């Protein structure tokens, strides 16, 4: 029985907690802190409350709450109780939350106090047994109900490979959101791999500014530091000045590219602010080479880029000290990656195709969607990521964009990333996005959407096209270059090309 209990993610993390229970786990920006001993006690109370609500192994617990220490404790309590944690983006509107809750059928829904009224209607519609609230200032019916519960709880035994620890719904840019089922083994194996590859050590202090409804902040950052038994400086949201204030105390920082761009824009951000830092990690969206090199010039540090997705957690990472700008590094230990053509034939090294991966990190499947699960897996167990890329002679992976973003112009395949890299090197360009738009002659017209750099040289459409002609094959040169003030992004900083395609669909005349 003891061996089976250890397969629970919480048990595996708890085995790595510091021996000194007074060691700090979370230090909040309001000068509050929580020790590892308090983590054990609070998660026990929360898990006991869930049990008293009738939650059993495999039941879903849906949450749409703001970032707080209590939110982390609720996540860990769900895992500890053998339940399935289902975080929802705090930006989701009622209709978006309605769809997910109707699909997931949770036993318990925990929401922000101010949304209780509207969530009550949804809970009634889907017969959700319990609706409770949790706020950012220790308030809410769940927090209050947990106070008298026991501080002892026997962690529920699970099947590590089969039991689901969390369901994360994908963004749904190609249709309705899908629930990715992540098992205890998925989460534990990824935390262990990142701990090793990023060389975590005793005394590492993580500055945590990411949201926690997403894999990056919840699993990559939090689980890895829990595996290390270390502490976190815990910000409710990213704030440039506050991050710069706290960086001298930290050794590790994880962010999306937007965070690094904002830091570089601050005159306060310099080598002094990074004097105790050991590791900067970027993910969730591509990091511009300009940001990569600018960060290194300013601080002396190289940002470590990695690659992952909701369904697989982290797949690759640049090794510390052997980073390649523009690459996301080789696969993590125990993970295999290959590149295939549309017929699922494995391509030679260096050729561009669809990236497929296999390993203990890959999701069990999609919630209540066997057809989608079957379509995304090959017979030999490889998962089709939907990302286009290549693998170089050193085994490093290079992402060329989403397969759905592939542009087919005049019968030729055009990979947007290749063109974006060239455009982004032009003086006066802040960033770019290349998309395909309906074209009467070519099927799709290669189109560049460009953000000009503030204070940079004046750039016009023809100037950019003229710069590209000598370095790109003619079929890759954009037919149009359009200028915008900013590229549309989701909450994790990914450019929403589908939105651009919708908004700019009438750029070219119809045939």
List the helices and strands and how they pair.
Elements: H1 2-5, H2 9-14, E1 24-28, E2 33-35, H3 36-52, E3 60-64, H4 69-80, E4 84-87, H5 94-104, E5 108-111, H6 116-125, E6 130-133, H7 141-146, E7 164-169, E8 179-183, H8 184-197, E9 205-208, H9 215-228, E10 231-234, H10 240-246, E11 252-255, H11 257-264, E12 279-282, H12 289-299, E13 304-309, E14 313-317, E15 336-340, E16 353-358, E17 365-366, H13 370-376, E18 383-391, E19 397-402, E20 407-409, E21 412-414, H14 416-424, E22 429-439, E23 443-452, H15 461-468, E24 480-483, H16 497-503
Parallel strand pairs: 1-10, 3-4, 3-5, 5-6, 9-10, 9-11, 11-12, 12-13, 23-24
Antiparallel strand pairs: 1-2, 7-8, 8-17, 13-14, 15-16, 16-18, 18-19, 20-21, 22-23
Would you write up a description of this structure?
The protein has helices at residues 2-5, 9-14, 36-52, 69-80, 94-104, 116-125, 141-146, 184-197, 215-228, 240-246, 257-264, 289-299, 370-376, 416-424, 461-468, 497-503, and strands at 24-28, 33-35, 60-64, 84-87, 108-111, 130-133, 164-169, 179-183, 205-208, 231-234, 252-255, 279-282, 304-309, 313-317, 336-340, 353-358, 365-366, 383-391, 397-402, 407-409, 412-414, 429-439, 443-452, 480-483. 30% of the residues lie in helices and 24% in strands. The radius of gyration is 23 Å and the shape is globular. Strand 20 and strand 21 (412-414) form a beta hairpin. With 511 residues, the protein is α/β, with parallel strands linked by helices. Residues 1-5 have low confidence and may be disordered. It has three domains: 2-16 and 34-181, 3-Layer(aba) Sandwich (Rossmann fold); 197-402, Rossmann fold (3-Layer(aba) Sandwich); 406-503, GMP Synthetase, Chain A, domain 3.
């Amino acid at each position: 029985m003891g061996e089976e209990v250890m397969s629970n993610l919480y048990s595996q993390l708890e085995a790595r907690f510091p021996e000194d229970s007074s060691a700090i786990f979370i230090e909040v920006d309001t000068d509050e802190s929580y020790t590892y001993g308090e983590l054990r006690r609070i998660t026990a109370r929360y898990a006991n409350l869930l049990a008293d609500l009738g939650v059993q192994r495999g039941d879903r617990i849906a949450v749409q709450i703001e970032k707080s220490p209590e939110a982390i404790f609720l996540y860990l309590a769900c895992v500890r109780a053998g339940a399935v944690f289902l975080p929802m983006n705090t930006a989701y509107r009622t209709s978006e939350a309605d769809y997910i809750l109707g699909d997931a059928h949770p036993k318990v829904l925990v929401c922000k106090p101010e949304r209780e009224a509207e969530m009550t209607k949804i809970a009634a519609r889907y017969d959700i047994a319990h609706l409770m609230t949790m706020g950012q200032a220790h308030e809410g019916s769940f927090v209050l109900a947990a106070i008298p519960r026991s501080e002892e709880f026997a962690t529920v035994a699970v099947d590590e490979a089969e039991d689901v620890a969390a369901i994360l719904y994908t963004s749904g840019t190609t249709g309705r959101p899908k629930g990715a089922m992540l098992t205890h083994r998925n989460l534990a194996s990824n935390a262990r791999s990142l701990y090793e590859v990023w060389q975590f050590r005793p005394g590492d202090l993580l500055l945590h500014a990411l949201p926690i409804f997403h894999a990056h902040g919840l699993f990559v950052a939090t689980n890895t530091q829990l595996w290390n038994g270390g502490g976190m400086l815990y910000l409710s949201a990213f704030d440039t000045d506050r991050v710069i204030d706290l960086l001298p105390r930290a050794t590790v920082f994880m962010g999306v590219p937007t965070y690094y761009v904002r830091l570089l824009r601050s005159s306060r951000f310099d080598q002094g602010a990074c004097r105790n830092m050991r590791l900067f990690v970027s993910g969730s969206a591509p990091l511009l080479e300009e940001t990569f090199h600018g960060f290194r010039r300013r601080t002396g540090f190289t940002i470590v880029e990695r690659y992952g997705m909701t369904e697989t957690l982290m797949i690759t990472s640049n090794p510390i000290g052997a980073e390649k700008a523009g690459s996301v590094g080789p696969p993590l230990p125990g993970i295999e990656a290959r590149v295939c053509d549309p017929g699922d034939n494995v391509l030679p090294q260096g050729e561009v195709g669809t990236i497929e991966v296999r390993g203990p990190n890959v999701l069990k499947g999609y919630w209540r969607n066997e057809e989608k699960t079957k379509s995304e897996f090959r017979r030999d167990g490889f998962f089709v990521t939907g990302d286009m890329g290549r693998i170089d002679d050193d085994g490093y992976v290079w992402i060329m964009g989403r397969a759905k973003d592939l542009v087919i112009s005049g019968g030729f395949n055009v990979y947007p990333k290749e063109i974006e890299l060239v455009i982004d090197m032009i003086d006066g360009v802040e960033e770019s996005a290349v998309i395909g738009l309906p074209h009467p002659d070519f099927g799709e017209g290669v189109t560049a959407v460009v953000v000009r750099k503030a204070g940079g040289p004046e750039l016009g459409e023809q100037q950019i096209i003229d710069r590209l002609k000598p370095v790109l094959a003619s079929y890759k040169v954009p037919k149009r270059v359009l200028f915008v003030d900013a590229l549309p992004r989701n909450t994790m900083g990914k450019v929403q090309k589908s939105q651009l395609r919708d908004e700019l669909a009438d750029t070219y005349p119809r045939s």
